[in-house]
Design goal:
The complex is a heterodimer of chains A (208) and B (193). With 208 residues, chain A is an alpha/beta fold. Chain A has eight helices and seven strands. In chain A, the strands form two sheets. Chain A has a five-stranded parallel beta sheet, sandwiched between helices. In chain A, strands 4-5 form a two-stranded antiparallel sheet. In chain A, helix 1 packs parallel to helix 7. With 193 residues, chain B is α/β, with parallel strands linked by helices. Chain B has one domain: 3-Layer(aba) Sandwich (Rossmann fold). Chain B is 38% helix and 22% strand. Chain B contains seven helices and seven strands, in the order βαβααβαβββααβα. Chain B has a five-stranded parallel beta sheet with strand order 2-1-3-6-7, with helices on both faces. Chain B has a two-stranded antiparallel ribbon with strand order 4-5. In chain B, a hairpin with a 2-residue loop joins strand 4 and strand 5. In chain B, helix 1 runs parallel beside helix 7. The longest helix of chain B is centred in the last third of the chain and has 16 residues. The model of chain B has no long low-confidence stretch (mean pLDDT 95). Classes of the chains: A alpha/beta (208), B alpha/beta (193). At the A-B interface, helix 2, helix 4, helix 5 and helix 6 of A face helix 2, helix 4 and helix 6 of B.
Chain lengths: 208, 193
């Protein structure tokens, strides 16, 4: 298993950073090869420029500025997003990461001699997980229709492997969260990761 | 004169989105709107909420300082029109960042006992003019996140009298006729706005 963790939060001391650490712990307990992309720390530019769009369909050049990210995307079989939900959606820096990295040739394979139709490009990705926090309550988030969750777990999921396994966990009503609720959530993150990845080797030995 | 703030989010002036933008602005002006035309790319808007902004997010009214001019324009508006292409089932980052950075507590909403109370109720009319690469069915299967964001999340803080979501789906296969028809529709809807 090779996991790519895409993380973003402007504050290094945020609760989202604690969630990220839990996710990374779960991966390292299992010896999963992991790469981390920290969008704020790497000052990722999320805005598609006119020249980006000019090259958008030119598969030989459209990844020139994002080649490290594209290489990570092609290397991994497990994608894990860790971010705060803002305005029911992805932070702009993360939305722009999708827009700039998921270009033709990466997100989609164009028709060629062997294939008549356009094909999804991320079929090597067999696991997709989302860990987020929402200012809004569970109820309000549902009423709005969870645009952020759907952008990733449906929109992005469409172009992953057919039987891609998914996981989703959110801490709702963050503005009225407490130490207790946050601690409980971190435990839930680990439990969710256990189900997402399968049991850790140590747990398997203990049961044997 | 009633004022309309138009938010436009496409980097290329020769794009179909730009044509929609021009059509919408002209139609609004023709029918007597005072249009504040905000081209986010041309204005070099930075969509990334910074660490300092995140720390001061709930500090009203200081939280508006980094984006004061945009807040002023939003507060002066009687109508809001968003013109953008849908990319990856969402807004372009530059427009999403406008929500992240400008739609602040004390601007677009008030938090009262942890609940969101609408605070842009001076915006009486709300519209989106957009294009999707994929089909309507594909967007529907994905839950159409941008439609929900406009029709529910943005709508919720404005509570407008009138709401229009004008979308052209399946852009990748749209003919000149389809595009022309959609341009006409945008023109007549904006004239009647």
């Amino acid at each position: 298993m090779r996991a790519l963790v895409i993380y973003c939060h402007p504050r290094p001391d945020s609760f989202t950073a604690a969630v990220r650490d839990r996710v990374l712990d779960s991966l390292s307990e299992r010896g999963v090869q992991t790469r981390l992309i920290d969008l704020y720390a790497s000052k990722f530019d999320p805005v598609l420029s006119p020249s980006d769009l000019e090259l958008y369909e030119d598969e030989t050049r459209n990844t020139a500025l994002t080649q490290d990210h594209v290489a990570d995307m092609e290397w991994c079989d497990t994608l894990i997003f860790v971010y705060p939900t803002w305005w029911y959606g992805l932070p702009a820096i993360l939305k722009g990461w999708l827009d700039r990295v998921l270009v033709p040739g990466v997100a989609f394979k164009m028709p060629d001699d062997a294939h008549k139709n356009i094909r999804p490009g991320l079929t090597h990705i067999t696991r997709l997980a989302v860990f987020t926090t929402c200012g809004a309550s569970w109820w309000l988030t549902r009423v709005i229709g969870q645009p952020g969750r759907r952008t990733l777990l449906r929109g992005l999921r469409f172009i992953c492997a057919k039987r891609c396994k998914t996981a989703y966990l959110a801490h709702y009503a963050m503005d009225s969260s407490t130490d207790t609720s946050r601690k409980a959530h971190l435990l839930s993150v680990s439990a969710k990761m256990d189900r997402f990845l399968g049991p850790a080797p140590a747990a398997l030995e203990a049961n044997a | 004169m009633a004022r309309a703030l138009v938010l436009f989010a496409h980097p290329c002036p020769e794009s179909f989105s730009a044509a929609l933008h021009n059509t919408a602005v002209e139609a609004l002006r023709t029918s007597g709107w005072d249009v504040d035309d905000c081209d986010l790319h041309a204005e070099d808007f930075s969509p990334v909420l910074t660490e300092a902004e995140r720390r001061a997010y709930h500090e009203e009214p200081e939280n508006i300082t980094p984006v004061a001019s945009y807040v002023e324009r939003l507060r002066a508006a009687d109508a809001l029109v968003m013109v953008f292409p849908v990319w990856n089932f969402g807004y372009p980052a530059i427009l999403k960042g406008f929500l992240d950075r400008v739609f602040l507590p004390g601007v677009s909403f008030k938090l009262v006992d942890g609940k969101v109370k609408p605070n842009l109720t001076h915006i009486r009319k709300l519209a989106a003019v957009t294009t999707y690469g994929g089909t309507r069915m594909r967007a529907f299967m994905a839950g159409d996140p941008p439609r929900k964001s406009v029709r529910r999340a943005v709508w919720h803080v404005c509570r407008p009298d009138k709401m229009r979501y004008l979308a052209l789906y399946d852009m990748n296969r749209a003919s000149d006729v389809d595009r022309g028809r959609f341009l006409n529709k945008v023109k007549s809807e904006m004239e009647a706005f």
